[in-house]
Design a protein that fits this description.
About 70% of the residues lie in helices and about 5% in strands. The chain has helices spanning about 10-30, 35-60, 75-105, 120-140, 150-175, 180-205, 210-235, and strands spanning about 110, 115, 240-245, 245-250. One of its GO terms (molecular function) is metallopeptidase activity.
Length: about 260
Amino acid sequence: MSELKIEIWDYVFGTLSIFPWAFAIYKAYTLPKSRSTKIGIVFALLLGWVSTVLIIWLHPILWPQTDFVPKRKVSLLTSTAHLAFIQAGMMEETFKISFILLLSFALGFDYEKKNFRTETVLFSGFVALGFSLVENTQYIAREISDKKFEIFLARTIHSSNIHLLINLCFGFFMLKSNGKENKERIIFLFAALGLAILQHGVVDFLLIPGAVFGQWVATALFVGIWVWVVRDWRVWIVPYFEDKKTLIPASEYSSQSY
């Protein structure tokens, strides 16, 4: 396979494909952003990029005979399921979430209280966007010039969106795990990983065939995830600040930031 040639405009379109979502979650996070939080956001983007590069490198090693297009000798349903749930869902979410946990334990975990802090949600979102930046750039680079803007819009609206939503969900599960004991907490986070794989796999399973009906169902699914994420955001981010193992209303919070 010839090496993919990526032009400067492919990088520009790739960056623009994540910019609206990055701006939205950064501005929506109205809690104090410490220096370590801002550094964590930069590292989150870098780790998202690293996860994409690792997957691109591992793909031909793990599946040397597999391409993005289903083979005729294999059932279309089986091939699509493999692409959606294994090659995309399981592989991508395992890498992304591993890096989310690594960064969260490094910069977003209170070891004295044994709690994830709220900035872990930001880190989760920006790992997803770092991943999408590279993936979107690759897809845009593969398209002919006349189709680049069309694929840019599709990747911005669908791909960047769904990666972000899935990992924001996982970020909120990390916060929800704060009240659980060690063993229960580990099981809870593994279940959250399983949910992320399932969400990713179902959406890709609906989108890969390219049928209009599947696209509408996939769109409805991630609209539903948006509702879930916005609801969690309002509960865990907007009106609350951290205090020990519980959260207190902002009106009761002292002027000192953590």
